[in-house]
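Reviewer 2 asked us to include a model.

Predict the structure of this chain.
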Amino acid sequence: MTQKLLDANRRWSLEKRHQCPDYFEKLSQLQEPEYLWIGCSDSRVPANVITGLDPGEVFVHRNVANLVHPTDLNMLSVVEYAVLQLGVRHIIVCGHYGCGGVRAAVSGSRFGSIDHWLQPIRDVADREYRCNEAEWCNEDQLDRLCELSVIEQVNRLSRTPILQDAWGEGKDVSVHGWIYGLKDGLLHDLDCTIGPANNNLSNPT
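Predicted model (structure tokens):
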């Protein structure tokens, strides 16, 4: 079954070299993405594909339900490298409607260690809706919770020492919150951008 992936890769490589003979040579020389994408691990939400970007144009980090944990050294290392070394100007936290992680967080069921990972979603639900888990049967509420969770992650990321220090040093980098619709393939800006002009430098995490 995996051989078809290798075969598809060879066809893709040949097509790219046919279109531009030095495509891979140029790509291998430099990485200067303008965007860092923090998205969900869901296989239906590939950053390059849904934004129409080529390899090398977006730096990507993905995890279940696109969460920002202040103790996640993997994610923090990606952010630090993207901001300080690559010089990205836009960090996009992108969730999606119908997120299985969001649904699991408020389902009332237990799934193991991932329950700890999903706790920030339950915190948002408790704060915004003040309802118990058994009441989560409304798809509109779940979709809204997907949006609210993205907004919360934007706020969390903006309070990390990495971003606070970057803004303090005058770096022009902004954090955006987007959401993707699985049913229509469209991205939507949640209008919660935080950047050099509207962050709170006096309140780091």
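The longest helix spans residues 139-158. The chain has two domains: 1-30, 31-189. We have added this to the supplementary material.
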